[in-house]
Amino acid sequence: MRHPWDRRLGVWWIAEDHPDAPAIVDSPSGRTLSYGQLAAAAHRVANALRANGLRVGDTVAYALPNDVDAVVWQLATTEIGLRYLTLNTALSADEFAAILDHSGAVALAVHPDYLERFHRVPAEARLRVVVGGPVPPDCPPGFIGEDRFLAGHPATPPPDRTQGDAIRYSSGTTGKPKGIVRPLDARDPGEALNAQAVFGRAFDFRPFEGVHLVSTGMHHAGCQSFYLGALNVGQPLAILGKFDAEQTLAAIERHKVTTAYMVPTQFVRMLKLPEPIRTKYDLSSLHSVVHSAAPCPLQVKKDMMAWWGPVLWETYGGTEGPATIAKPHRWLEKPGTVGRPIRGVRVRILDDDGNDLPPNEIGNVYIERLDGQSFEYRNDTELTRSVHRGNAFTIGDVGYLDDDGYLFICDRAKDMIISGGVNIYPAEVEGVLAEHPAVGDVAVIGVPDPEWGEQVKAVVELVAEATPSPELADELIAYCRSRLAGFKCPRSVDFSAKLPRNEAGKLIKRRLRDAYWAEAGRRV
């Protein structure tokens, strides 16, 4: 049965029908907005962009912190047919310059805190705006203040509205980031955001019930998908500037949060809080907490379910497109699954020759949209071709489908270790080591071995109370051997003060591997 709100969901329609409904209830800057105010702010930016000569298909890049402006600029660009590019604010000056150059962005919005890394902006980015604060005296050339940019432009809907889209750059965990674009389809923005509401409803985000917590980086595609899914069903946002385990629990209690998007490293850090802190806060309002972006160790998810109840939803896919959903009760029936394919998508398991494999056989995971929609990597026809087999594409994972069609991911194909001709999946080993009380974070990689080709090494970030030692390394290896077959277990353990993860929680293993393979005369 159609929900009574389904016909008028979406930010633009909610702003018309319920302009006083809350849209932002908390933010690092202290700004709160109703739906009417949020829509007006976005319209004003959209009108200013149009007045500065931007046209359908142009790209607008922005480097903005977790706060209200990130939502405003995202909505503004997409209601006038522009592509928005959300820049990871942790990037270096060289990385910013490379992505801006590759994207062809013609406009750039930057918070004052990041301006020092924008002294080498490509000439194509002719419109440059400082957003979220005054223009500093040492501002790079060509930037103007937000007040000047917006002056004289109305807060009413711009004429000839047409839906835009993102140009998304992948996280770059296995190499240089890739710009992912899809064809613009000239949809009405109201209809498009209603579709985002349908997306939210798929994860049981209930219209006008509760608050959505934003606790991951708002530049990340996963975070954006779910805060938009929440906004478009009428759930206001409580935005955290950065993740802190205890403050996240406090925010859930304070705002009676019902929905959220998180990544597994957040679960690990919350689980490692002392018991008195974990039990201090009322988390009973939680209804749907979605996680993705990185593998979640089996025991971590079991522990979270035991703590928060059956509220954890999992989704699998990539920046290139979504693939599956694992509802809480289904995951409890099939621990470790990432779910079944979403409507309109088929998941296939192929061998290296492109042949479909039967259930329970491990192979390359391919995702196929049945509506024929596609994507491409900007200015890289060869890379686009290499990840496709017909209409199906891969994001580089290996896994299998069980007899009921549920997908299980074994690991990233590029992370798989081949030792003596045997395939070893690091995610399985990491899941075991993460359970050790001294382990704060762990990466398992293959390092050179003259006899076996590769051997298994664990690189461990310890909790604050633990101290690195040869004895602890031996203890971790023994701990692993008591739970896994010997050939899967680390032959050695190194300790690191901080493992390289991006803000989506993904391990950047290439940085670790490079140090060990630099002198080997070969690469994996």
From TrEMBL:
Domain of life where this protein originates: Bacteria
Enzyme class of the recorded protein, top EC level: ligase
PANTHER family (UniProt xref): BLR3536 PROTEIN, LONG-CHAIN-FATTY-ACID--COA LIGASE
The keyword Ligase belongs to this UniProt entry's keyword annotation: yes
Chain ranges of the AMP-binding enzyme C-terminal domain: 428-506
EC id: 6.2.1.3
Pfam families per UniProt: AMP-binding (PF00501), AMP-binding_C (PF13193)
Protein name, UniProt field: Long-chain-fatty-acid--CoA ligase FadD13
Family membership noted in the UniProt record: Belongs to the ATP-dependent AMP-binding enzyme family.
Keywords noted in UniProt: Ligase
